[in-house]
Amino acid sequence: MFPAKRLVRRSTALFLFAFFIFQTMGSAPTASAVNGWSRQQKPSRETSKPPARNPQIAKLVKEIDARNIENTIRKLVSFGTRNTLSEQDNPTRGIGAARDWLYGEFQKAAAASEGRMTVEKQTFEQPKGTRVPQPTMLTNVVATLKGTQTESAGRVYVVSGHYDSMCNSATDAKCDAPGANDDASGTAAVLEMARVMAKYKFDATIVFMTVPGEEQGLLGATHFAEEAKKANMDIEGMFTNDIIGSSLGANGVRDPHTVRVFSEGVPSNETTQEATTRRSVGGENDSQSRQLARFIKEVSELYVPTMKVWMIYRRDRYGRGGDHQPFLERGFAAVRFTEPNENYQHQHQNVRVQDGVQYGDLPEFDDFNYIADVARVNAAALAALASAPARPKPVTFPTSLSADTPIRWEANKETDLEGYEIVWRDTTEPTWTHSQAVGNVLTFTMKGMSKDNYFFGVRAVDKDGNRSPVTYPRPLPRAPRPDQSTQQPPP
Ligand SMILES: [Zn+2]
Q1: Which pLDDT score, from 0 to 100, does residue 34 have?
Q2: What pTM did the predictor assign?
C-alpha cells in the first residue's frame, strides 16, 4: 500500500475512533460499555436460550428404536468375523456376508423414501500395503437421501460407521472378531438413522455410509473422501460413529448420558500461508470442524435433553485415529462420536477368558439403549443441518483498524432465507455465548466491539427458524505493497 493511502486509512481509523468516543460521550460509561458494548447495543438474546424447535426433528428422534440397533449388532456379530481380509463370497461368514446383508437392509430403508434414497455398493481395489498383504476388493455401502430444495440438494452431510472388525491382529482374517462395539455399534446407528430418516424430506442431501478397511488404515473412508474431492462434492459436515457401544468404562464409570464429540481446532489441511495468517489473527479454536461440534452440541441437547455432548477439543483420542481424518485432510469439516470411557479389554482382542477376565468385543458389553441415544444425537444434528440454510461464505472482516467491527458475507441462495445472525463470544469461551439477528443484509457493523477482544461468527436462518452452523470470518487479503515483499500488520 502506498504511504499516502495508508495515511488516509489511519486518518479514517482515527476519525472512526473519535466518532465512537463522541457517540459514547453522551451517557456516563456503564460497566457493560466498558466491556465493549453500551446498554442500548446489548443483544436481546443469547444463544444459550433454545432456538425454535423443528417439530419434524422432535418427531424423528423418537422413532429411533434400540431394538433395531440390537438386532443389527447381533446379526453383524453372527458373521463370525468382518475382518476386511476375510471371505467375500461366503453367505454366512466374513466381510462379504456383512456387506451384502447391509446392502439389503439399506435397500429396505430406501423403499420408504418415495425414490429419494438410493443405495450403492462403492467397490474398489485396495493395493497391497502394510496391513493389506495382497490387493483386496473393498466395498463401501452408501445410501444417499437426496435433498428436496433445489438450492440445497448439492450440499451434503455424511454419517458413517465402519463395518469391518478385528481381533488382536488386523491381518488375521480367520479368528472370531465380533466387533460388537468396534464398530457394529456405529454401523447399527447409521442403519437405524437411514431407516427412520428415509421417510422424511430435508433440504440438503444426507449420505448414510458404512465402510470397511478402517482397521487397515481408514481405507474405505479414504476412498470415499478422495472420490468426493475429485467430484467437487460440497460435503459440509461428516460424522464418524466409532465405538459408541458401551456406557461402562474400564475406569468403572457407568455414564449412559454422555457422548464425546472430537473436533480438531487447527485444520489438518491448513496451508503454510493459512498458518501464517492464523498466527497473526487467531482462530486456533475456530476451524469449521469445531463450529460443527458446537452446532451438534447446541442442537442435539435441545432434542435429546437426556444426553450431554462432551466436546473434546482435539482431532481424536490421544495418538489414535478414525474415519473422519481422510475427510479433514481433504478440507471437509468432520467430527468423531465415541463413548465417554472406553474399555480396551473389549477392543481389538481375541475372544478369550484370561485370569478370570473376559476379553473380546462381545454384544454383552454393549448398551443398546445408549447406542440408540447416541443415534438420536446424530439424527437430531443431521436433520437440523439438512433442514437449515448453508452456512454463509465467505465471511470476511473488510477493514483492519477500527473500534467497530464490520463483518461482510455473500448472499445465500435459498429462497426461504430469513436472514443472518452475528454470534460472538469472549476469546476464552468454548462456545458462542451471544447472538444478534441482523436481518437479510450482507454486511453488519458491531459498534464499539473490537475484533481484538471477541471472536465473531455469522450464521444463516430460514423462515422456519432453522439455523446454519457458524462461519468464522477470515481477514480480507491485503493488496501487496510495492515497497515490501512481506506483508506486515500496521504497527
Ligand atoms: Zn473402530
Answers
A1: 36
A2: 0.88
